[in-house]
Amino acid sequence: MSAEPALEQILYISTLSPRETVELSSILASARRNNTRQGITGLLMFNGKRFLQVLEGPADAVEQTFERIRRDPRHRAQVVLSRKRVERREFGAWSMAFRDGSQSSSADLYEDICALSAAAHPNLKAELQAFARQL
């Protein structure tokens, strides 16, 4: 009987590179397709200038995905806020859940993030909710 691969979770923030524009629907479609194939789940938030993302899944897949993101010229100043092994997924239902300020009122968005992160580790929940307040 083989053990399940260790799960890794990375929380990072990055800034949209100057003079870059983002086609969020294209980014999300690609992320969801790739993440499903690699067994990665998570959450992405974008406030028009900064991305905050949680990636979780098999450690090697998460590392490869994050390395690809680090090389993406649309991002700069990537800062890892948390990198840890986890026993269970905190965003297991989503290949990539997404929230930004254009989807609803800021109060509704904050409530959505609170609901999405209800079972998350307290530190992760605090980071996500603080970012959601800025959307």
Question: Would you spell out the secondary-structure blueprint of this structure?
Answer:
Layout: E1 7-16, H1 24-38, E2 41-46, E3 50-58, H2 59-71, E4 75-86, E5 97-100, H3 106-116, H4 122-133
Parallel strand pairs: 2-5
Antiparallel strand pairs: 1-3, 1-4, 2-3
Helix pairs in contact: 3-4
| Biggest sheet overview | 5 strands, mixed
Quick check: average pLDDT?
83
Query: Roughly how much helix do the residues carry, as a percent range?
Result: 25-40%
Structural class: alpha+beta
Distance between the termini: 46 Å
The gross shape turns out to be: globular
Write out the strand line-up for the largest beta sheet, numbering strands in chain order: 4-1-3-2-5
Total strands: the figure is: 5
Order of helices and strands: EHEEHEEHH
Low-confidence stretches: none
Summarize the structure.
This protein is α+β, with helices and mostly antiparallel strands. The chain contains 4 helices and 5 strands. It has a 5-stranded mixed β-sheet, sandwiched between helices.
Structural notes for this entry:
This protein has 135 residues and is α+β, with helices and mostly antiparallel strands. It has helices at 24-38, 59-71, 106-116, 122-133; strands at residues 7-16, 41-46, 50-58, 75-86, 97-100. The longest helix has 15 residues, at 24-38. The mean pLDDT is 83.
